[in-house]
Amino acid sequence: MSVADVAKGGTSIWLDDLSRAKISGTDAHSLPSRIAHSGVVGVTTNPSIFGAAIAGADEYAADIAAMKNASVDDVVKKLTTDDVRAACDLFKEIYSATKGVDGRVSIEVDPRLAHDTEATIAQGKELWSIIDRPNLMIKVPATIEGLPAITALIAAGISVNVTLIFSVKRYGAVIDAYISGIEAATNPAHVHSVASFFISRIDSSIDALLKKDGSEAAMSLLGKAAIANAHLAYQLFEEKFSSPRWQAQVARGAHKQRPLWASTGVKDPAYDDTRYVVELIAPDTVNTMPQSTLDAIIDHGKVRGNTITSNYGAAVEVLKDLSALDISLDSVTTDLEVDGVKKFAQAWDDLLANVKAAQQG
């Protein structure tokens, strides 16, 4: 079975989806069924996911009506934290069995705070307190302003999912921010973290530039940038978490911050729909996938074990070849971070507008 092979390779399967209907459902796509039969050991959410879940869904109507006079921000906070708390409870046994490594559910701070360090810290602590579950993770964007927030939350004993990482350089800064937080934490053994490295959006952007170039050299690089970038991120993970600085924290019971492959749904139909799973398997990793990608892995995924650590040299060559075509991966990843923050903020604004309309309806 493909999902068992993914886990055997060291990659935990998390589902990038959540709604009240999935939490309480009984069909094959419900969260209890996914946990029991599809190898799912965690869940991630984001503003777009909450927007899709709540907009027009009948199961939220009673809660929205009961808070008719509350601010729209308070209503959305209640709806999303209630769902995440319920999901945390579904994963309680996995959380215990894996000693806190898996069984995790993530909720993101308001994406409009992505460039406000202090507000991000404050809301991270607030969400941690409201949901009040040890298997929660607070999602913090990997913006420059987000880095000190990561350190502060980790130091406070709060588990963090760092999101919107696109470049290996920024990923290095994220790891350093995490280790700084662990060094300041009173009891690092209680803290876990993942670093969400985005995949498919990189290929979408780079492939567009390659097709615009149109040369044979360019066309031979289609679909190679995102996986190569992720492979080099994993190489950095191995280096950083074997350093003397980190080993000093291992002696205190600290846990590695695992790389999490996000945005693993394939956007180009010309590509195999399982490629961002099967090409990114290695020990101490997580892959959070949309429902369609998980179903594809179950149906026809061909898992080949560790597909990362033997490919560092090839990954370096891909980046060299892109550079030779004057395609700057740094420029692309910088634009993707800006765009990612903007899209999540827009999704959050849309969610607030939809809930406000429901309140007034």
UniProtKB/TrEMBL annotation:
Gene3D superfamilies found in the cross-reference section: Aldolase class I (3.20.20.70)
Residues forming the catalytic site: 139 (schiff-base intermediate with substrate)
Reported function: Transaldolase is important for the balance of metabolites in the pentose-phosphate pathway.
Gene: tal
Record's catalysed reaction(s): D-sedoheptulose 7-phosphate + D-glyceraldehyde 3-phosphate = D-erythrose 4-phosphate + beta-D-fructose 6-phosphate
Root EC class: transferase
Record protein name field: Transaldolase
Keywords: Cytoplasm, Pentose shunt, Schiff base, Transferase
Gene Ontology CC entries for this record: cytoplasm
Source organism phylogeny: Bacteria, Bacillati, Actinomycetota, Actinomycetes, Candidatus Nanopelagicales
InterPro entries: Aldolase_TIM (IPR013785), TAL/FSA (IPR001585), Transaldolase_2 (IPR004732), Transaldolase_AS (IPR018225)
Pfam families attached to this UniProt entry: TAL_FSA
Localisation: Cytoplasm
GO molecular function terms noted in the UniProt entry: transaldolase activity
